[in-house]
Write a structure and sequence with these properties.
- With about 240 residues, the chain is an alpha/beta fold.
- It has a single domain, classed as P-loop containing nucleotide triphosphate hydrolases (Rossmann fold), CATH 3.40.50.300.
- It is about 35% helix and about 25% strand.
- The chain has a 6-stranded mixed β-sheet, with helices on both faces. It has a 3-stranded antiparallel β-sheet with strand order 2-1-4, with helices on one face.
- Helix 3 packs across helix 4 and helix 4 runs parallel beside helix 5.
- The longest helix has 18 residues.
- The termini are far apart.
């Protein structure tokens, strides 16, 4: 397999707690991967290492494509800058406003070009954060639970937007999530992190666009929940 991301022997410890324990990982170019695991399993630690926000231990190998962009759970917009300047933050070269405008057009926020962050709804602010990531044309897009703070309807809209943007730009994408349904709806591969290593690696081949329901969806959902240690009672047995 051609790899966009290659990780070998990644170990991270915090005091006596080993969060990542000799982890190996390969991601293919353009692949959309969901990373699941219990709280404290090391999902965000892995993402931060891939993003270059945490140092790579001397014994580990971490190879990622560049540029890389990250979208966090909070939009992290600078309140003293208009939206286009937030999106263009750190851009090199000329026509930063034009590039920001094009990115905002893709996420449906072109009319908010000169608006201030405080005037945006939660979903709009997260779309602006996506535009800020995509304006850099990343080859690796890291999403750290970006929909967790959104209401259910906004989350559904954001799911559709992310898939549209992924298809248009084709970055290798790693989504950290606690939501099993979200993983099945969005990803073409789901990883479960447990005891510092990848405990399960499950292909998701459902045709797109995807919807909740159906035997295949239920089977994948059940398998992922089982890997996470969640048992779903059989309705027939419960009766």
């Amino acid at each position: 397999m051609t790899t966009a991301v290659r990780v070998r022997r990644l170990t991270r410890r915090f005091g006596a707690n080993t969060v990542l324990d000799g982890l190996d990982l390969d991601l293919a170019p353009g692949q959309f991967v969901a990373l699941l695991g219990r709280s404290g399993s090391g999902k965000t630690t892995l993402l931060r290492t891939l993003a270059g926000l945490d140092a790579v231990p001397a014994e580990a190998v971490v190879e990622v494509p560049h540029p890389t962009a990250v979208v966090f759970q909070e939009p992290r917009l600078l309140p003293w800058k208009p939206i286009w300047r937030n999106v263009a933050l750190g851009l090199a070269g000329g026509d930063a406003r034009g590039r920001a405008q094009a990115a905002l057009r893709e996420v449906g926020l072109e009319r908010h070009l000169d608006a201030w962050p405080a005037t945006l709804s939660g979903g709009e602010a997260q779309r602006a954060a996506l535009a800020r990531a995509l304006v850099r044309e990343p080859r690796l897009l890291l999403l750290d639970e970006p929909f967790a703070a959104l209401d259910a309807l906004t989350r559904i809209r954001m799911h559709g937007l992310v898939i549209d943007l992924w298809r248009a730009h084709a970055p290798t994408t790693l989504l950290v999530t606690h939501d099993v349904d979200e993983a099945v709806l969005l990803a073409d591969r789901a990883l479960v992190l447990s005891h510092g290593r990848i405990a399960a690696d499950i292909a998701i081949t459902l045709p797109r666009p995807r919807r909740h329901g159906g035997s295949e969806f239920a089977a994948l959902r059940g398998r992922l929940l089982a890997e996470l240690g969640v048992t779903i009672p059989n309705p027939a047995e419960a009766a």
